[in-house]
Specification:
The protein contains three helices and eight strands. With 132 residues, it is of the alpha/beta class. The chain has two domains: 70 residues, no CATH class; 42 residues, no CATH class. The strands form two sheets. A four-stranded mixed sheet has the order 3-1-2-4. It has a four-stranded mixed sheet with strand order 7-5-6-8. A hairpin with a 4-residue loop joins strand 5 and strand 6. The N and C termini lie far apart (67 Å). About 5% of the residues have low confidence. The protein binds zinc ion (2 copies). The site of one zinc ion has 7 residues, from loops.
Length: 132
């Protein structure tokens, strides 16, 4: 009996892991549970408990909010109002109000909660919107 339980458990774990791996492969940084209320960053412990068959993926917080989800209080994903934006493969990060953001391809946007997080990924402040 014990053996069956452990086999079931490892099966569930595999499903969970493959779900998270899939989300990362497609470049989706945000996930939600079908029928749920909150969306999460992929690394959120709550997000990791979402069963693979219920996992909904979003490329940006904007997309998740548009779909009716609100930000999870545990992982506190950057919401479109206060987040900084960069482009995948780009060099600079911007405030949302920057005129450069309007030219960005939505699918390539990466969101950061603050400048420190963006710089950790190698982005530099935009000289237009971060002019002193
Ligand atoms: Zn979360
Ligand atoms: Zn800018």
């Amino acid at each position: 009996m014990k053996k069956i339980v452990s086999v079931l458990m490892s099966g569930a774990l595999m499903l969970l892991l493959s779900g998270v791996a899939m989300a990362q492969e497609t470049g989706a940084g945000y996930v939600a549970s079908k029928g749920g209320e909150k969306f999460h960053v992929v690394s959120c412990p709550v997000a990791k408990k979402i069963p693979a068959e219920k996992l909904v993926k979003f490329a940006s917080p904007e997309a998740a909010i548009k779909a009716g989800y609100t930000a999870c209080k545990t992982c506190n994903p950057p919401t479109s109002a206060d987040a900084l934006v960069a482009t995948k493969g780009g060099q600079k990060y911007h405030k949302q109000s920057c005129k450069m953001v309007g030219n960005m391809d939505t699918a390539n946007k990466v969101y950061y909660k603050d400048a420190a997080a963006a710089e950790k990924d190698g982005y530099k402040p935009c000289s237009v919107c971060f002019k002193k």
